[in-house]
Amino acid sequence: MMIEPLIGYRILDFTKLLPGPLATLWMAQQGAEVIKVEAPHSPDTVRWMPPTKADGNSVFYHALNAGKKSLSIDYRSEAGREAILKLVESADVVIEQFRPGVMEAFGLGFGTLKKRNPKIILVSITGYGQTGEMAQKPGHDINYLSYSGVLDGLRDSHGNPVIPQAQLADVAGGSMMALNATVTALLHRERTGEGQHVDVAMAKNVAVLQMLRIAEENETGKCDDYLSGRLASYNVYRCADGLHVALGALEPKFWQKFCNLVGHAEWGARLMERELVAEVAALFASQPRSFWTDKLENEDVCLSPVLTLQEAATHVLFQNGFPNPLGSVALNPAPKMGTDNDELTP
Length: 346
What we know:
Helix content: 25-40%
Strand content: 5-15%
Number of domains: 2
Largest sheet: 6 strands, parallel
Shape: elongated
Order of helices and strands: EHEHEHEHHEHHEHHHEEHHHEHH
CATH class of the largest domain: Alpha Beta
Structural class: alpha/beta
Distance between the termini: 37 Å
CATH superfamily of the largest domain: Crotonobetainyl-coa:carnitine coa-transferase, domain 1
Number of helices: 15
């Protein structure tokens, strides 16, 4: 069980949709006081996305905003802006997800925040960064993946790019980087006393997911797709019942043991042959998934069933929660909008 490293820190959260709210959910799980700030005329649009719960709010809103306080305030008005700046005096971090310049237009830019609290940290999540010719360009996960080259590497058997169901850029390039940026900036402040404005650019950050591909193509001018279906030892196979298994026998010791266990020791020396993929596929197609998991899952060959979400949710791996929380704090349900107005705006 993790400790609660962010207890005592106050986070003012102006973010919407997925990237920022997921980052601040993790902060709440680690003990931070997270105040979700929404303007009455422009609340988080994720609230209304179907499907909804009985209270009319989206299941996505509930999933992303548990454990937070809610402040509904018109921060574009003079009184609302002053109330926010008063909170900034006791806050540690302000995190926002507007296009560059919007916080300044609200009168809540970093310079203004810093005057009220010299140690404040402002974390800004955008698609393309705070500066540069693309800074004002709109975008979503699919756009960040396409600009970064990640989508080019996700192709089906016909060579067409495949849209992943997981929001890779939003989460890996946004949420995870925002959490990392926040914790790193807090550590820097502990050491130096300095606040700072941190730029989290999703399209730039998500490129790190393809570090090996980048290194290979920069050196050779091409990518041999070793980890994208070229190798028989690292592939996904359809079984006789239509279900799938994932084989990750990448190291020679795992691969040779797999070959021995399935009665094809001679495959061990053929690892780099593309034709071998079809032969291994034919073997897996001869039996249902349960046959192969019973035979191989508990052996040192790195074989696993490809689970559905429902199967994964009940798997022993996720006995502490699905998805697994990043902290040990038990969170209250997501708040109704404005629930904490009286506490936060005395």
